[in-house]
Structures are given as structure tokens and as C-alpha cells.
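Work Package 3 (structural annotation) set out to generate three-dimensional models for the target panel prioritized at the project kickoff. During this period the team completed the workflow that converts sequence records into C-alpha cells, so that structures can be stored uniformly alongside our sequence database. As a representative example, we reproduce one entry of 79 residues exactly as it appears in the project archive.
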Amino acid sequence: MELKDSGERRLMADLNDSGNGSDLIGKRFGKLVIVSICGQRRGGHVIAHCVCDCGNEKDVMISSLCAGRTKSCGCFRRE
């Protein structure tokens, strides 16, 4: 598995240490909270299933969460 950036490497180290991703579950990024790890996308990006504070669910690349590029399901823009 090739990881794209140091933030994703750091989070995946947490995932590997716990064996089941429980270290990542509940971690908050902006309005999104990780509820599960979905797997990988083409290119090696790891995908997390998140729930937004507004109630919507969204699958997001962990690297986007770490870099601050994704902070909500899109409701931030609508506010």
C-alpha cells in the first residue's frame, strides 16, 4: 500500500497499531467525524466513511481530511 502524504501515513500507522482502525474512529476533522475505514481507492488513497454534524454521510480520502481540504459534506459552502 503506497500512501500519498505524511498525514495519511501517520493516520495509517495508527490504523496498523490498533489492527482494526479503532484509533481513527471518532476522530474529528472540521464538521466530519470518521465512523469507519472503507478501504483504498485507485492510487492508494485510504478512504474513511464520515458523518457530518448536519447528519449527512460522506466517504472522504484521509489525505484530504489531514490537509484540511475537506471539512464538511458540503454544508459549509451552503451556510
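Strands lie at 28-29, 32-40, 46-52, 57-61.
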